[in-house]
Amino acid sequence: MLELIHKFTNQEIGVIKKGGSEQKEIDDVDEIKAFIGLLIYGGAKQDNHLTTTILFNVSQCGYWYRTAMALKRFEYLLRALRFDDKTCRPDEKFAPISELWGMFIEECKRWYKPGSYVTIDEQLVGFRGNCPFRMYLPNKPAKYGLKIIAMVDSSTKYLLNAIPYTGKGSTPANQPAAAYFVKKLVEPIENSNRNITIDNWFTSIKLVSDMVEKGLTVVGTIRKDKIELPPSFVDVKFKNRKVGSSLFLYHSDMTAVSYKVKVNKLVTLVSSMHDTPELHPFSKKPFIIHSYNATKGGVDTLDQLCAHSSCNRKTKRWPVCFFYNMINIACVNSFVIYQHNFQRLNHKKENAGKPLTRLQFMIKLHEQLTYNWKQKRLANTVRMNSNLKHNISQSLVESLPAVDEPSTSHSIRIPKCSPDQTEVMHITVDEPSPGLKGETMERKKKIYYKLGNCAFCPSRLRKKAIASCSQCQRRICGGHIKKKENFCVDCSLE
To answer: How much is the pTM?
Structure first.
């Protein structure tokens, strides 16, 4: 996928350069990784709404953006980003990103096995620019955008499969669109006895029967105008039904229920997973309703997770907007896999610690994606000022994996222009002298680990300490250190 982006973005850069641009083509995929890493970092820090001028201003957003890429280069890649060859594009609405999208969905299917319950629903990617298949869905937060029919694991919100809706002509003429999407999405999980939760836009009696033949069960709401439902079943005034009462219909392989929520409101559902009229002992609602409520929010929650840490930036091109949504989904999916692997590998360890939060995971992902490109930038120091070089070196050292006993030097291998030539750069840091006062700012910059708060000073003071006690290893400032023994106040009294 990175090679595909690299190839067609370079093709577009070649066209732009004919107009007088001085920017060079992309050398390798490490620059594409760094570009995606910056988008992910912007989503993690929720900076996606800020202008690029603010993002790359060190005094306002720190040096993390500046160390990975120059401002003009980042804006140039945003402009030149392409995913297909537009000179020989097929006559298809989704052609500008269809190949990349297909590869992405195949990877989503490959690396995860879903649980017992999956949800199929609509996701709306917010977009108000020109697009031949832009939709208006008033019930969604974005209102206008690109609609995707997605299948998501109900428990973990992992996206398993998805199909973009491109308007009329995207489905066969002799088949309902809702049934077509459901049948295409469930192909990877056929004959697995999993349950599918769908809403009334998808649900029909014929579709439920077809899913039973494919070895799947269905729970979903159903519209009251279906011809298979008798009039008395959907009549809210039938025999003066009481609020909270339920009527059941049975067939050979499915059960329907009509539940009176209010005086003038009925809720109708159909299920091929339930075959008895059981009611919940406390709420007195049918178990079909409880099963639907417990598993219906998979896609909506995925949409919420993508919106909370979104890497979307303002754009007039819908393929780029679609690409941003792919990165958001990839961050959610990879975080789900990380949590599963962490629990699997550490469930027997007593001191395994806690897994990374989603914010920490995305920041770590940004560091790993930009690491190689930062090394190459540091190797090319011809036109780089000393402050930027120092910031890149510091960010590289901070991105190194943590160790129990930090050494006084690190070796960072920096590739040169040719792959067979490498240069080893040593970043040496001085050992801090405990209790040393009057330390210069230049020496503090050389300390590669972050300073800690003094264990004895009040927390509101946030007094930083370099030294640590030789016995208890707590951080201690100059006022709470026993100079000769390098002990803290408490350990020196023992």
So the answer is: 0.78
